[in-house]
Write the structure tokens for this entry.
Amino acid sequence: MQTASFPPLRRRGLLIHGLILAALLIVTSWAFVNLGQAAIGPSVLIYLAILLITLPLLPFFAYRAFALLRAEYVLDRDRLALYWGLRIEDIPLNEIEWVRPAADLKPPLRPPTFSLPGALLGVTRHPDLPTPIEFLASERDRLLLVATARRTYAISPEDPAAFLAIFRRAMELGSLHPARAVSRYPSFLLLQAWALPITRFLWTAGSLLNLGLIAWTVFLIPSVARLPLGFSPMGRPLEAVPSVRLILLPVLSVSLFAAGILAGLYFFRLSKYRVLGILIWVSSTLTSLLFLVAVWFLVSAPAIY
């Protein structure tokens, strides 16, 4: 029996997540531009609050779209592997007690809170099942339940009938080489990266640099009326603008630092690209330092020139 791959339905989930990401990008860009033009007052706090809400949501929904793109259920004579983003569950076939449609349950199985098409993720319970139910699915109407002694998994292959037929065939043939159970969560990757001294140093240094930049900027804005936000090609300070626009620098710095950590983790998860991931973290920390230096140059510009 050859290995069979069953992807979940992706179209509707990717469309919904794409629309959410587009809306978040538009709102974030609008708030960022207006923050750079606002005068000191309540409007600054409003734009900052919008950015504090939308910026964390961007990587959240981007990861969910990425996870859906990589999602796959792989079945052979020895194991059933569930792949959903950085979540990997490798189940030996002899540990699976049964597989059946979720529609057979009464009362109906409810997905976890805050689920969206394309991202039915999380753990829930059902009164008729003794184990927790972990959702790794995209659509409610194609759910299959895979039961083991420890946990039940809710999955949504694009063709549930074909999945059930191949699963029964694999069970009839029996396992040739019993697989080893593997369970990996995204948090494992963070712990693995944090275990390296260089990673701890870079993440800690970058975080402290950004906290220092935020504190310094908050201190400068009330004490300085106007600042030249940049330099001409000849090295001269540009025309001074209200100092509130200085808040754009820590916003950019924190955003780039967070994006660098996520990008580094993407490459770090693969052994052959781990050096590249660490180099990205080095550049992110240096970028945070450069933003701090940039504020110093802008504050010192009137005295220098």
The CA atoms of residues 10 and 207 lie 36 Å apart. The two ends are 77 Å apart (CA to CA). The chain has two domains: 1-181, 185-305. The chain has a mean pLDDT of 86.
